[in-house]
Amino acid sequence: METLLTVRELRKTYRRGGGVFSQESDGARFTAVDGVSFEVARGETFAVVGESGCGKTTLARMLLRLIEPDSGELRFEGRDLLALRGNALRAERRQMQMVFQDPYASLNPRMRVGEIVSEPLAIHEPSLSSAARLERTTAILRRVGLGEDALQRYPHEFSGGQRQRIGIARALILQPKLIVADEPVSALDVSVGAQVLLLLQELQREFGLTYVFISHSLPVVAQVATRIAVMRAGQFVEVGLAGQILHHPKNDYTRELLSAVPELPRS
Q1: Per-residue confidence of the chain (267 residues) as pLDDT tens digits?
Q2: Which of 84, 88, 105, 131 is most buried (CB neighbours < 10 A)?
Q3: Cβ–Cβ under 8 Å, residues 121 and 128
Q4: Kind and range of the H or E element at 92?
Q5: Cα-Cα-Cα-Cα dihedral of 154, 168, 224, 67, to 10°?
């Protein structure tokens, strides 16, 4: 299969403590992401699973250069993402979008839904007419299960699941190739989360999307992943096909995570 994303030895450290009155004047640092390497094939769902604080979100944000890595290599369709600046980076970013964890915090409460979803078009396709922008915005909202009446409403008027659908519509409006989904259902109840997962799978098939899916939940990952990386303390301890990781793990830490889950669906 064709490789879409290549990550080599990606690393990120932070200063430990960091408060104004911190006693640590020696510049002690901790490593959030410690030499992570992987490839993602076009059309697959590569899931990164691990406990809170293991570095998953830092990794996800580095993939889109929302956080700059200290070192490593990041290539998208063979192009060196870390070497891009300005317009070249902006052009590449339209192919890589993010669905955030918190559907409450990730939407501007002062903007109407139509403005939120169409904002990427205003940034990346400024020559698009207002009529064409409205048409594309309405179409993508309908595709994620929201009607035209959503355009003039504000985020607080929607449920958590509906807000996450708005976030998905915003990510898809530019027709990207890669979606990085950072815990997209963890703030939702189980039944609503299951509906959002189903929607993401439908959209993947329809638009030929590639997902990097971040989660702390093995049952969630079991529903969507083609391959899984298990992350602990900034490193991948095991990477493999979903069935192998979920049902025949090799690493002790992976077995510990699985032992805490009552039952997983068979892939």
Answers
A1: 799 999 999 999 998 765 544 454 445 888 999 999 999 999 999 999 999 889 999 999 999 999 999 999 999 999 999 999 988 988 888 899 999 888 788 899 999 999 999 999 998 999 999 999 999 999 999 999 999 999 999 999 999 999 999 999 999 999 999 999 999 998 889 899 999 999 999 999 999 999 999 999 998 999 999 999 999 999 999 999 999 999 999 999 999 999 887 666 555
A2: 84
A3: yes
A4: helix 86-93
A5: -110
Q: Is the dihedral of CA 83, 89, 93, 94 positive or negative?
A: negative
Contact predicate 211/200, CB 8 Å: yes
DSSP single-letter state for residue 264? -
DSSP assignment letter at 174 = T
